[in-house]
Automatic annotation (TrEMBL), chains A, B:
Pfam families: HMA. This is Heavy metal transport/detoxification protein. GO terms for molecular function: metal ion binding. Residues 2-68 form the HMA domain. It comes from Hyphomicrobium denitrificans 1NES1. Keywords: Metal-binding. The keyword Zinc does not apply.
Length: 74, 74
């Protein structure tokens, strides 16, 4: 299992954070997601055989948020 | 093809609306989605053989929004 934490720009409220979480949970291979509005982060635990960081980043950015940094541990 | 418009409570900003749209677009059978922050509505065009209203409503409500009404035309 892999873990990544993305720093995200563009979240305006807690509802944004909860909706990004729901969006990431629909991605195959994602095991758990924790999204925080302040600071703007998404910590994702995923199976690297079924998901990858590029696709997760793309899913976050589709509604207009920006992933500006990443780390493998929180 | 079916069309439904949901009235939604709990959207706080335009980013919420864009993220709900992305969330609905991941649902199988959904052909097009238009979500408006003000008024709070989601108009969804979907294939009734692959999607249904109950599942669409559930997807909107998972992050904490509430579907308070529906109409078959906008």
């Amino acid at each position: 299992m892999n873990q990544v934490t993305f720093n995200i720009e563009g979240m305006h409220c807690e509802a944004c954070a909860r909706t990004i979480r729901a969006l990431l949970e629909t991605e195959p291979g994602v095991k758990s997601v924790d999204v925080s509005f302040d600071p703007g982060t998404a910590r994702i635990l995923f199976d690297p055989n079924a998901a990858n960081e590029a696709r997760l980043k793309s899913r976050i950015e589709k509604p207009g948020y920006r992933v500006v940094d990443r780390a493998e541990r929180p």
